[in-house]
Design brief:
Elements (H helix, E strand, L loop, with lengths): L9 E6 L3 H14 L5 E6 L5 H9 L6 E7 L8 H19 L3 E6 L8 H33 L1
Parallel strand pairs: 1-2, 1-3, 3-4
Helix pairs in contact: 1-4, 2-3
C-alpha cells in the first residue's frame, strides 16, 4: 500500500469469453472484499490478462490483482497451451512487480453448453472468487507484517 492510500484497493480482471460464467468469480470476490474497494477491468480473453495485470501492477494502486478466465478446448487450438501461457505470464507479472497476482482460471477439457453444466461452472467460479479474495487478504497481511 502506498503512503497516500488509506484503504487497500484491489483490481479484478475478467476475460470476455464465457463472460456469463467468468463474471461469477467477481461475485464471489466481492462477497469477501467490498466492491467499492475493487476496480474491474475487462479484457477480450485469457491471453490478454498478463499484459493488463502488468499495466495495473505498475500503477502502484493495488495491493493485489485477481484475474479470471475460463479456457476451454475449442477443438482448433490447444487450450492447455493458452492456459499455461496465461498462468506463466501472470506469475511473471507478480514476480517482476512485487504485486500479488491471483489466478481464478479454470481449464476444463470440455464445456457442455447445457444449463446443468453451466450452473456447475458458474457456482464453482463463485467459490474460486471467494478463495482469491481470501488469498489476497492473507498475502497482503503477511507481506505487511514483513515490513512492520
Amino acid at each position: 500500500m502506498t503512503p497516500q492510500q488509506t484503504v487497500p484497493r484491489y483490481a479484478f480482471i475478467k476475460a470476455g469469453w464465457h463472460a456469463d460464467i467468468v463474471n461469477r468469480a467477481y461475485d464471489g470476490f466481492t462477497q469477501i472484499i467490498p466492491p467499492e474497494r475493487v476496480d474491474v477491468f475487462d479484457v477480450p480473453g485469457a491471453f490478454e490478462m498478463p499484459l493488463m495485470a502488468r499495466d495495473l501492477a505498475t500503477t502502484g494502486r493495488y495491493v493485489a490483482i485477481a484475474a479470471a478466465a475460463l479456457v476451454v478446448d475449442g477443438g482448433i487450438y490447444r487450450h492447455d497451451f493458452v492456459a499455461q501461457a496465461v498462468v506463466d505470464g501472470l506469475m511473471r507479472v507478480g514476480l517482476d512487480t512485487g504485486v500479488p497476482i491471483l489466478s481464478v482460471s479454470l481449464t476444463p477439457h470440455q464445456l457442455q453448453d447445457t444449463d446443468h453444466h453451466i450452473a456447475i461452472y458458474a457456482e464453482h467460479f463463485v467459490q474460486k472468487g471467494r478463495e482469491a479474495a481470501q488469498a489476497a487478504l492473507m498475502i497482503s497481511k503477511t507481506r505487511e507484517s514483513l515490513t512492520a
